Amino acid sequence: MRIVNASSENIAKAAEMLTSGQLVAFPTETVYGLGANACDDDAIRAVYKAKGRPSHNPLIIHVHNMAQAMQYAEFSDLAKNVASQFWPGPLTLVLKAKPDNGISELATAGLDTIAIRCPAHPVANAIIKRANLPIAAPSANASGSLSPTRPIHVKDSLGNNVPFIIADGACGIGLESTVLDLSCDKPALLRYGGVTEDDLEPVTGALGAHTDDNEKPRSPGQLSKHYAPRTPVRLNAVDVKKGEALLAFGSVKFMGVEGGGAAVDLPDNAIRNLSKSQDLHEAAVNLFSMLHELDQFDHVGIAVMNVPDVGIGKAINDRLFRATIK
Ligand code: TXA
Ligand code: MG
Known about the structure:
eight-stranded mixed beta sheet, 9 helices, globular, binds threonylcarbamoyladenylate, binds magnesium ion
């Protein structure tokens, strides 16, 4: 496995590798993706294998612009409108697939819909454009574990299962894209993410309830256990129990540690602050990387302070909740 910078030579090499059926990890504005040619059954099989991902959980198809997306999916007027306002960006649209669109049925898990997104990250966009292919790209981590927001997370999670990693620092949003289902009569949010309900509703009208039905999730990937560190996570903490690490949000001045002491005095390996100034966007950027960091030590648990459930805070709380499920 090689980790390389995002030079134009390496972007060209990545595009070549994708065209020849190999896997390439690359940065997007949300999280790092594990890319494969979406038309190539063998490449898609390799993605599921590298991640240890169940094959009934379909992949997001990445494109470099709207015109490319229209080759694979049916765009209603609403879908065109939404895409023109939010693309390129952290929004995935679930749309009716065009018949005979060339996309591997393994990538869409045999559904008659397709999840499609145009990433805003210039490196992702350049690779897709250069390859001139639809690129299936799930998050570049082993299935069920924390998503990667830095190249090192990809390396640690996938190791030699990914031959080539294009590195370009930390992801600017830090949480996966919002998944919006426009394939049914009523638009529905299937996954909270970088684009919020408040952003979408002026364009889409009221959104259907976010489904959390494990029996029959509308988005097969929304099974509860997901995004989990090894260390148990405890939410809405107002103190720190013995042996726990603290994932703070805002001031910890008045937070105590069981058995005596104050959270401010915790050793460096036992405390991270998502955002001292209570900025939810900063907290989103830090969420996965701070969980990754705290997970490297043998803490008995990670106590997480309350994060307000507004705006992108809903996406943060969704990931935190899933991190508590073993
Ligand atoms: O931000 C992102 O979306 C990242 C980057 C790399 O672009 N990708 C990502 O992919 O998060 P992944 O595979 O980790 O998540 C894809 C989600 C899953 O929850 C999956 O079930 C859902 O999209 N999905 C894919 N196709 C679908 C479909 N046809 N209908 C409903 N949900 C679908
Ligand atoms: Mg994922």
